[in-house]
Structures are given as structure tokens and as C-alpha cells.
Specification:
With 123 residues, this protein is an alpha+beta fold. It has a single domain, classed as Ribosome hibernation promotion factor-like (Double Stranded RNA Binding Domain), CATH 3.30.160.100. 41% of the residues lie in helices and 28% in strands. The chain contains two helices and four strands. The protein has a four-stranded mixed β-sheet with strand order 1-2-3-4, with helices on one face. Strand 1, helix 1 and strand 2 form a beta-alpha-beta unit. The longest helix has 39 residues. The protein is elongated and about 65 Å long. The relative contact order is 0.15. The mean pLDDT is 84.
């Protein structure tokens, strides 16, 4: 696994093995955005209840904090369903990591095009 999960923590509720396994599986889907040689990618996962006194029922919160190559991505979500909150936070983290990966690739291609033009005598 190229993403090392430092901690999985529950606040205001019990961290069951089912919740932990689900959070790990959703985190594992983010590995496609990380270079397999990169061993410095770390992740913290936090799930929990926001408060216990909502009139409409329980509200759950999920948070992923991912550190890779000098960048930190933090995504949070609240929902009445804990599993839906985990899905939402994973989806947002996926979008942000994809943007970072595509930006890096685009910058490389722009630099390569500039070098090519310099070698051809343009610009």
C-alpha cells in the first residue's frame, strides 16, 4: 500500500471493525493518484458524531487528511449516514488529488514543449 494510514480515530462514538474496514477500503481507492514509489504519503482518518442533541437525529462527520510531497489535502463531510459521509469525503479527496496529479502533468508537458521550441529555434 503506497498510502500509509497513520490513524483511524472515532470521536463521540465507538470505532467498530466494520466502520474501520469501510474507511480503509475507501482510502485505498485513492492510491491510484499516488506514485507507487512514493512511500511518504500519509493519511489520517477521523469519523464521529458532531453532537448528540440534534432534533433531526444524529449527524455524522468524516474527515480525511492526506499529506504527500509537501502538500496537505483535508476534506470533511457531514451527513445523517456515516457511510455516506465517508463516501463524500473520499470523493472530494479523489477530485482534489486528481487535480493535483493533472496539474503536475500539464506543467511537465508545457515545460517539454518550451524546450522543444527552443531546440527548434522558435521563441
Amino acid at each position: 500500500m503506497s498510502i500509509h494510514i497513520n490513524t483511524i480515530k472515532a470521536t463521540g462514538m465507538e470505532l467498530t471493525s466494520a466502520i474501520e474496514e469501510y474507511a480503509r477500503s475507501r482510502a485505498a481507492s485513492l492510491e491510484k493518484y499516488v506514485d507507487e514509489k512514493d512511500t511518504s504519503t500519509n493519511m489520517d482518518i477521523e469519523v464521529g458524531k458532531t453532537t448528540g442533541h440534534h432534533q433531526s437525529g444524529e449527524i455524522f462527520r468524516a474527515e480525511f487528511t492526506i499529506q504527500f510531497k509537501g502538500k496537505t489535502i483535508r476534506t470533511t463531510s457531514t451527513n445523517e449516514d456515516l457511510y455516506a459521509a465517508i463516501d463524500e469525503v473520499q470523493s472530494e479527496a479523489s477530485r482534489m488529488m486528481s487535480e493535483h496529479k493533472n496539474k503536475k502533468k500539464t506543467m511537465f508537458l508545457k515545460g517539454a514543449a518550451q524546450i522543444k521550441n527552443m531546440l527548434k529555434g522558435k521563441e
